[in-house]
Automatic annotation (TrEMBL):
Coiled coil: none annotated. This is 4-methylaminobutanoate oxidase (Formaldehyde-forming). Belongs to the GcvT family. Residues 376-431 form the FAD dependent oxidoreductase central domain. InterPro entries: FAD-dep_OxRdtase, FAD/NAD-bd_sf, FAO_M, GcvT/YgfZ/DmdA, GcvT/YgfZ_C, GcvT_C, GCVT_N, TrmE/GcvT-like. Residues 433-711 form the GCVT N-terminal domain. It holds the Pfam family GCV_T_C. GO terms for molecular function: oxidoreductase activity. Residues 11-373 form the FAD dependent oxidoreductase domain. Residues 733-816 form the Aminomethyltransferase C-terminal domain.
């Protein structure tokens, strides 16, 4: 029988699993009333009901991940007292084991970072681990890490407790209305805005906000409204043994990356949960609407070898029968991070899905983030890594999902390295220079779908990684040679992955001025570096804006900000303004030439005047390069004399060949992303999404020079930044660090100490081959102004894998602080 539904609501949430109910709960706690949750079956009937319910931290390497996790763990531990319904949460503890030196080193790096954010991860001996997990064979374990406060919960009970809390509402609202057995078939739209939903029985609900929390159904529902939600269901297995006598009920959860398995007690037996390194996608074409509380027929032949490996950690369990071999779907995204936030395609449409089998674990934190985003207009944590707009449509194609998904389960659970890229579904985006670079010895990594040269080997045959490591790898010296070429001679980089937008029209300058902290109302031919900020003064992007003509601008931004930048441009065009935004990334090839001999090289192939007087720093001109006419911008992200050449794609290969031939006797070398990183870190250049994010502001990040608080008309975030500036010397500031010992490496997450006080952590690190040691950028925060005197005279150390190393800290770039080389 058709259930009568309200014709209007403030917010409609599609999906009654962990994420949808968590979002409703947190909205009501923010006094956001008039919320309705629609589920096509029963609550938890998608994937929530068969989740393992692990409330364990894993290895968390960002502040946002830690905050999302701890919020959920703490909420589940206290929720019963609020709602009267148990969540089944038990803090039985969480044990991670390491069977090789690299894994030990990785965990020793990450554990101090996690402790900084309230996760009590500490190292214990193999003997102590064996006592905690007596049923396991831990004879090959080198070290273990234990979190006593972590544990497990009952997924269905958690969701029902949250549902009661959502129905009860907050202090000043009537609570959420939760309706089962209602399937949403369409999202209603008008003029690029979501206006409500239509159900399978023809009823419509208009709404101010439409929130998709449909789990593995989200992609196909979103596609009907033109949304790009690249996620794919995959088979997920766990095995439960018959009862094992004397198995402790409070046995800690054990995770073992060497067997790709988690282990926990389950009603007197042992659960072995698989995240096998060769998984299987399920139903590429779409998930049946009627699939509720469903199971998938197990593929014994495929998972047999992985089960055998899983049993090797708990061989005693072979003496007991199998009560259940379960196979059910879980949805995964291409980079194993959720899809959260406002959709680029539709205003007032929000998403939280693609939880990568961690929906119970991260559901509460994700619901909290999304609820604040909806109510406050801004998220409370860094959302760069989870923002739904980070993918292209290519990532949603059946071919991509088919090829990438099998790798994801093992990648989620296995051992990780800082520079490891996906191995499957590659070549999504290739520069037209790809074949030339490959022939030159490029080893390619993936960046937002792009094939990017990471470093160059002496020959194509040597372009491989012999062994992944947290220490120096086989390519380290080749990368060092690229770095030295940029500092002493000249280097060439293919930066075609940089996103490029033409912004044109009568009101183009007004739009960009409103978005930009710096003054972009400059003469044609000027390049302006600027940040974009939100109303709180937090970063939304950092980029260059080049005025080509009176009403024509070019915006160049990193590939990780492509979707977000385009959405921000389009969303801020006023109703009475005339502006067009055109993505021209694919039509041009960006070739960067930098180094002391860059002018010599470019002068050999161009008849244009490249002198300082004719072509000063931060200007743009069209110049000839051989047969091509290219847009040349005299800018740098590495701290050397140089130009960005924006070359028509049809002439890029010819231009590259011409430059390489002309630079043979100038020491010209190809260079990759590792070298870009090491060079820019020596110069202390910031990079949005890597070392600054939406929770940071330009004043504390040391970019106040690019913030014009008094420019005519102001900009978004000016009031907030004015208030921050008025407070005087910040207590929290981004600093550059250089290790005194030339041996250790920095990768990010290393803790910063001033004397014996822990004051921050490194956001990103690299090796400063010119400076002679590892360099990194990180925020340091004190309870008093962080003055220049403290920075220069302080006793600074960085913690790497449990050891502290002396470091120099600086507010100014340690390399060429006077910018003499850039202006040469």
């Amino acid at each position: 029988m058709t259930q009568p539904l309200p014709t209007h609501t403030r917010t409609v949430i599609i999906g009654g699993g962990s994420i949808g109910i968590n979002t409703a709960y947190h909205l009501t706690r923010l006094d956001h009333g008039d919320v309705i949750v629609l589920d096509q079956g029963q609550l938890t009937s998608g994937t929530t009901w068969h989740a393992a319910g692990l409330i364990v931290a894993g290895l968390l390497k960002s502040e946002a991940e830690c905050e999302i996790y701890t919020h959920g763990r703490d909420l589940y531990a206290r929720l019963e007292a609020e709602t009267g319904i148990s969540t089944g949460f038990r803090d039985v503890g969480y044990l991670q084991i390491a069977g090789n030196d690299e894994r030990v080193h990785e965990m020793r790096r990450v554990a101090p970072f996690m402790r900084r954010f309230g996760i009590n991860c500490h190292e214990i001996s193999p003997r102590e681990a064996q006592k905690l997990f007596p049923i396991g064979d831990l004879s090959d374990v080198k070290a273990a890490f234990y979190i006593p406060e972590d544990g497990r919960a009952n997924p269905v009970d958690v969701t029902m407790s949250l549902a009661r809390g959502a129905r009860n509402g907050g202090a000043r609202n009537g609570g959420a209305h939760i309706v089962e057995g209602v399937r949403v078939t369409d999202i209603l739209t008008r003029n690029g805005t979501a206006t409500g939903v239509r159900t399978a029985d023809g009823q419509t609900i208009t709404a101010e906000n439409v929130v998709i929390c449909g789990g593995m159904w989200s992609r196909q529902l979103g596609a009907r409204a033109g949304l790009n939600l690249p996620l794919q269901a995959a088979e997920h297995y766990y095995l439960i043994t018959e009862t094992i006598p004397d198995l402790p009920r409070d046995l800690p959860v054990l995770e073992d990356p060497s067997t790709y398995t988690y282990y926990r007690e389950e009603v007197g037996g042992m659960m072995l949960g698989l995240f096998e390194p060769q998984g299987a996608a399920w139903n590429l074409g779409g998930i049946p609407d009627t699939f509720q509380f469903g199971e998938i027929d197990p593929d014994w032949d495929r998972v047999g070898p992985f089960l055998e490996l899983a049993y090797s950690r708990v061989p005693k369990t072979l003496n007991y029968g199998v009560k259940k071999l379960f196979c059910g779907p879980e949805s995964f995204t291409p980079d194993l991070a959720p899809l959260v936030g406002p959709t680029p395609e539709l205003r007032n449409c929000w998403v939280a899905c693609g939880m990568n089998s961690l929906g119970i674990l991260n559901g509460a934190g994700t619901g909290m983030v999304l609820a604040h985003w909806i109510v406050d207009g801004l998220p409370p944590v860094d959302v760069t890594a989870i923002n739904v707009g980070r993918f292209s449509k290519s990532h949603s194609t059946p071919a991509f999902r088919r090829d990438r998904t099998p790798e994801l389960l093992g990648k989620l659970f296995g051992q990780h390295f800082h520079n490891e890229s996906p191995k499957t579904a590659r070549d999504v985006k290739r520069s037209v220079l790809y074949d030339r670079l490959k022939s030159a010895g490029a080893y390619f990594t993936e960046g937002n779908g792009w094939e990017q040269p990471d470093w160059f080997a002496p020959s194509p045959e040597e372009a491989r990684i012999d062994t992944y490591s947290w220490f120096r790898q086989n390519w380290f010296d080749w990368h060092a040679a690229e770095h030295r070429a940029a500092r002493k001679d000249v280097m060439l980089m293919d930066m075609s992955s940089m996103s490029c937008f033409l912004v044109q029209g009568r009101d183009a300058c007004a739009l960009l001025s409103r978005l930009s902290c710096n003054d972009v109302d400059v003469a044609p031919g000027r390049v302006v570096y600027t940040a974009w900020t939100n109303e709180r003064g937090g970063f939304e992007a950092d980029l260059t804006v080049t005025r080509l003509e009176r009403d024509k601008f070019m915006v160049v931004v990193g590939e990780n900000s492509h979707g977000h930048t385009e959405m921000r441009l389009r969303r801020h065009i006023g109703a009475d303004e005339f502006v067009t935004v055109t993505d021209v990334t694919a039509g041009r090839t960006q070739i960067n030439i930098h180094g002391p001999r860059a002018r010599d090289l470019l002068s050999r192939v161009s008849g244009s005047d490249l002198s300082n007087d004719a072509f000063p720093f931060m200007t743009a001109r069209e110049i000839d390069v051989g047969y091509a006419v290219v847009l040349a911008m005299r800018v740098t992200f590495i701290g050397e004399l140089g130009w960005e050449l924006h070359v028509p794609a049809t002439q890029a290969v010819q231009t590259y060949d011409l430059l390489m031939q002309a630079g043979q006797d100038l020491g010209l070398r190809n260079a990759g992303m590792q070298t870009l990183n090491s060079l820019r870190l020596e110069k202390a250049y910031r990079d949005f999404g890597i070392d600054v994010d939406n929770t940071d502001n330009p004043i504390e990040a040391g970019l106040g020079f690019a913030v014009k608080l008094d420019k005519p008309g102001g900009f978004i975030g000016r009031d907030a930044l004015t208030a921050i500036k008025a407070r005087g010397t910040p207590h929290n500031r981004m600093l550059q660090f250089l290790l005194h010992d030339p041996e250790p490496l920095l990768h990010g997450n290393e803790l910063i100490y001033l004397g014996e006080a822990q004051v921050g952590y490194i956001q990103v690190g690299g090796y400063g081959h010119t400076l002679g040691g590892a360099v990194g950028l990180g925020f340091a925060g004190l309870d008093r102004p962080l003055t220049e005197e403290i920075v220069e005279n302080g006793d600074w150390t960085l913690e790497i894998a449990g050891k502290r190393f002396a470091a120099t800290a600086s507010l100014r770039p340690l390399y060429d602080p006077q910018m003499a080389k850039i202006r040469a």
